[in-house]
Write the structure tokens for this entry.
Amino acid sequence: MRNVLIFVVLGAWLAGCSPARQPVVLHAAEEIPANLSAWNIVFADGRSFEINEGVVPYDLNTPLFTDYAFKFRTVWLPDGASASYDEDGALDFPVGTIISKTFHYEKAAGWSNDDFRVVRADRESLLNQDSQFDLDNIVLIETRLLVHYADGWKAYPYVWNDAQTDAVLEIAGDARRMELVGAQGAESFTYVVPDTNQCGGCHTPDHSAKALSPLGPKAWQLNRAYAWWGEQGTQLEHWARHGMLSGLSASPPAGVRWSNPGEATLEQRAKAYLDSNCAHCHNPNGAADTSALHLNIEAPIDTYYGVCKTPVAVGRGSGGRSYDIHPGRPEESIVTFRMQHTDPDIAMPELGRSVVHTEGVRLIVDWISSMNGDC
């Protein structure tokens, strides 16, 4: 039943039952609209959520953690344009590309617009669930757009209204008090929508270039089964087959899902998780290059990966621990200490989460515990 949700999301226009939609609009960077609906990428009417024709949904193998929010991702390319394949980094998207990511939660019992009680989900996506993407059970929080102009990428955060009919541009960001409800009880937290500058703080993997770029759509992240329109094969194959991707390798890097032990080794899953959650800054060219801690997935497991590496100007973030990663001793490793904190002066990543990702911490603890050697 993997296709049930997307058929609900797309079914209206696929069956010709919804009102005729205007085509996607690529707005000039000087004329960014106040309302998300003006882009004609995604639509909501308070009852259901759908995407426009020509807008293609996709998913990642190991997405960034954001306070247990679900994320619905789409990409739109101008007519006749295609992305260029890249073996290591993000795909090279053409000018005019619009990437969207809609953050949403399942409503918990007792939810209201005055009491944002949401489900603390133990899965990463609603796309593979036998569930309808109707707004009786789901609350839309924000949609972020990443738009490729001739002079580079630009980021725009839109926050959904209480009526769930449109989202409003919030250049300065936003915050909302919420309550995560799970098997272990409820946890109050502040969900933070980043401002435009904060979007750039993460979406700048090459700090010296100071240019925004997509982070998620890399070959290994997209190399997974395509779940929509009844097609077979991987997302990469689907994109290539439909003219969205050129230069696809016959042997793209294997996809690694951090949450699926049956698909990869513990080390591979840990590296995938750290790449998605840390490597936008912790790479040789990233904003955290002075830390000399490189957590990109292709990096070898050595001192630069944190093994027996002493911290650089970390302050309270060390927790009194001597090494970023102490083999066999997660309780003495700085990486796990920072992952287990929500204090802004200690927590890593610095942006994007207000609660601890329990399952992610467990993965890294298990991996460090399994490592041989000592410092």
Summary: The first helix runs from residue 4 to 14.
